[in-house]
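--- STAGE predict ---
source: upstream dedup step, 1 unique chain passed
mode: sequence only
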Amino acid sequence: MNVSLLITCLSDQFYPRVGRAVVAVLQHLGCAVDFPAAQTCCGQPMYNSGYADDAAALARHTIDVFEHSAHVVTPSGSCCAMVRRHYPALLADDPAYAPRARAMAEKTYEFVEYLTRVLDVDLRELGCRWDGRVTCHDACHLRELGAMGESDRLLAQVEGLEHVPLGKRDRCCGFGGTFAVKYPQISGAMAGDKAGCIAASEAPTVVCNDGGCAMHIAGACRRRGVSVELKHIAEVIAEGLGLMDAGSV
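--- STAGE serialize ---
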């Protein structure tokens, strides 16, 4: 499989280890991975704030950048949802880009769904082992992809890993991109509730597959004295396959 990595803004700036883990896992599974350096923001912040023209300009740029990619894989469910669910509608009236937006949507996948739906990975067969106790937060945008809970399938295949259910798992963490900026009191209260559920799980590690959620939840936990480490599932798998040392940068 030929795969292009859509790293996303937050992963690129704050969680580069996630990108390295995604590449390491995909390569281990036999994929040839490239990184188009001209990629920028997918346009979701502008789209969510009502700036459709600006979002459309970034959508066109992203489509141009990944025009010749066979598959596009991203570690972020929210950015994947932007490309797959909103690009076709955003550019529906553009005769030059409407068909290209649909083609881009059809070949773009969130990391976990690419492993489960395209590669049909069984981590047990690969000897993946990661010793520890985790709980899992699903980003809300996974609903748009029909991928809620798909991380559970992969985590259940990891030897040595104990998965503790997170209370109120279906609740938003409160980040919501620009929502956290526009409504900080509401956003902060939601994050505090999520931090309380994480503390109740007594799991030292939270698997969170979206940079925005991870940043928001980590801040809420730190402010409330909840000592946890947040990891993307790509990091857990990479560590479990011996492709990356635990805690390495």
